[in-house]
Design the sequence.
């Protein structure tokens, strides 16, 4: 399998993971807003922590994609 094809497959898989985590973050936001309106403050901190963890996971995935792309470009040029 060529490196370009591997990159396309990898990018597609990461895109699906990012889309899933964004949907979960939107659900957490909705849950947090409903809890805030019901004055149930105990669930706000865990939701914020979970959303922050998902944010860093997305950042790590993005960093991995950029690093992989840079490596592929370096291998095709040299």
Sequence:
């Amino acid at each position: 399998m060529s490196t370009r094809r591997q990159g396309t497959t990898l990018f597609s898989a990461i895109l699906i993971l990012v889309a899933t985590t964004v949907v979960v973050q939107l659900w957490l936001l909705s849950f947090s807003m409903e809890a805030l309106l019901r004055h149930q403050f105990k669930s706000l901190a865990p939701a914020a922590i979970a959303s922050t963890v998902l944010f860093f996971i997305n950042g790590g995935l993005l960093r991995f994609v950029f690093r992989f792309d840079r490596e592929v470009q370096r291998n095709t040029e040299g």
Remarks:
- The CA atoms of residues 35 and 41 lie 7 Å apart.
- The chain has a mean pLDDT of 90.
